[in-house]
Amino acid sequence: METPLHHILAGPVRRPRRFRAGGRVGVVAAGWLLGLAVSVAGCAGVRPDLPVGAESEPAPSVVRAAEPPRWQGVDETLADDARPSDVLPEGSSPAEARPSGGVLFNDPGAPPVLFSQDPEILRAEVAAECLSARSMSISIRDGLDALVASLYSSVIDPAEGTEALILGNCAPPTDIVREMVAKGGEQVLTPVAERARALSAPRARRAIETAAADGLTRNLELNGSGSGPTRLARDHAMAYFPSEGSAVRIETSNGIDRLYRRAVPGFGVYTFIMVGPNVERLAQPDQARHRELFRLVETYAASGGDAEAAPRPDAHVFLIPVDAELGGMPLFNQVAADLSDRMRKQLIEDLRGQGEADIAAPLQKGSGPFLVAALEPDLLSGGAGAYRLVADLSGLEIEHLYGVVDAFDRGIGPELAGRPESLAAIRDRLRGVRGPQSGNAGTVATAEPVWFFMLGGPGESGAGAGAAIGRLMLGVAALLKNEPPSA
Q: What are phi and psi of 389, to 5 degrees?
């Protein structure tokens, strides 16, 4: 028995269409062969709830007045139990709408997904995709990124795409706005924000405007127009710049703490670089110092070798928190300031816990950048007596930065590999770098401020501020006499 054509068209919600080399592949019923192509050139869309031959209604550009605002009785963040079936065509169910394979999320090698231009079908398709993502425990970040990319690939109106994502409970509206603007740029900011505001509670207006502004900032970063480190990092990673044997490496992790607590093992010395607090609002000289340091690291470290080579115990390595999504930009623009701040704050807590409050203070108040060298692939000490070398570059003149990078970025002799003497060798080279200028120019025997510190070792438990002050005084005396300080 033949199925009437209008029953076919009013059937379950179809999955987004895929395009392949052999032509369009989608949910094609035998009824297409009965003459449907006679007047639907361009697939402008026959609404499933209209009889065959009926004229399609134009897609509304705003939420229909007959529908109550989405926020009435629903929090603006959209409850987790919001039902995607609310936006499915009549006669369909979530079970029927859900794609069997999660077409956007579990098949990265598949052809692109193309969504329908019809707003109602679009909303149903997006809702089905989001339901599929939730069923597979796909993260909001990864699922939303894939969905927004496919919406733009399908040339979907940005406002319609925003509405489909919000009604499909795909993510909080602020995340949706941020991602839509980040990928669409300034030209989509107004329609995306307006549609999100129309679907959200009035109290969400400011949050939506902030999300739109963040999205525009992210768009500039992705296009190489950012002015510095990002606080909108989506893919946190650690960039490796070793002195010997291998080129730049990027290591990502599901847990960002692991990036600096469990770095790639096998190097001789690990030096973590962190930017100063509120790096975006630093004075121009401080900004220039940061930019030059990262330029030197990017230019002179990891200048050769095989990117696949294993870490070597005779190699020093710089580690810099970055956003992997910004790869290809200048290193300073790749820096993930949010991750850097997290590292710096945990280091301050660690130092204070070991009785090193005087050394922790510059990390909190200084302009930076800051370098911390250790023998283990871990920024934090793990206990008293662990050897570390801390350098505070706040106030250091730009012309001295090359000497700093050179002091760290050298191979380690076999006899020093894994030993505290390798850190002491870096310290000794830093003594040849001219430090920040004293305010008492012309005064004889005036010491320049101490800007690097050697921590750890027998008898240095760091059990009080007095011990720290005593070591600082010994360091000043050593600089004046140009000789190593006593242990």
A: -120, 120
pLDDT of 256 reads: 87
- Which of 196, 452, 239, 423 has the alpha carbon at shortest distance from 326? 239
Region 424-443: what's the mean pLDDT? 69
DSSP 3-state of 199: coil
Cβ–Cβ < 8 Å for 267, 242: yes
State the pLDDT at residue 12: 42
For the whole prediction, is pTM greater than 0.85? no
Please report the DSSP string for 338-351 in residue order: HHHHHHHHHHHHHH
Computed on alpha carbons and rounded to an integer, the radius of gyration of the chain in Å comes to 29
| pLDDT for position 141 | 75
DSSP 303-339: -SS-TTPPP-TT-EEEEEEEEGGGBTB-HHHHBBHHH
DSSP string of 127-139? HHHHHHHHHTT--
Question: CA 263 to CA 376: how far, in whole Å?
Answer: 9
What is the mean predicted confidence (pLDDT) over 9-37? 36
- Residue 180 CB partners (closer than 8 Å, separation 6+): 148, 158, 161, 162, 165, 188, 192, 215
Q: Do residues 280 and 271 lie in contact, with contact meaning Cβ atoms separated by under 8 Å?
A: no
CB 304 within 8 A of CB 247: yes
Q: Residue 114 phi/psi, 5° resolution?
A: -120, 125
Which amino acid appears at position 193 of this protein? Answer: A
Closest CA to 213 of 252, 182, 255: 182
Give the C-alpha separation, 259 to 321, whole Å.
Answer: 8
Of residues 176 and 443, more confidently modeled? 176
Separation CA 156–CA 152 (nearest Å):
6
* Separation of alpha carbons 397 and 55, rounded Å: 73
Q: What is the pLDDT of residues 311-335, one digit of tens each?
A: 888 889 999 999 998 988 999 999 9
Other Cβ atoms closer than 10 A to 407: 20
Q: Percent of the chain beyond pLDDT 90?
A: 46
Q: How far is residue 392's CA from residue 372's CA, in Å, rounded to a whole number? A: 9
Q: 112: pLDDT confidence band, cut at 50, 70 and 90?
A: low
Both structure tokens of 382 = 């793990």
d(CA 484, CA 327): 41
Q: Which position has the token pair 């692109």?
A: 112
Task: Please enumerate in sequence order all residues whose Cβ is within 8 A of that of 473, keeping only pairs 6 or more positions apart, or say none.
Answer: none
Within 10 angstroms of residue 96's Cβ, the number of other Cβ atoms is 14
| Number of Cβ within a 10 Å radius of residue 403 | 14
Dist CA 436 CA 361 (whole Å): 18
User: What are the CA-CA distances from residue 164 to residues 39, 160, 177, 180 (Å)?
Assistant: 28, 6, 12, 12
Q: Which helix (H) or strand (E) holds 358?
A: helix 357-365
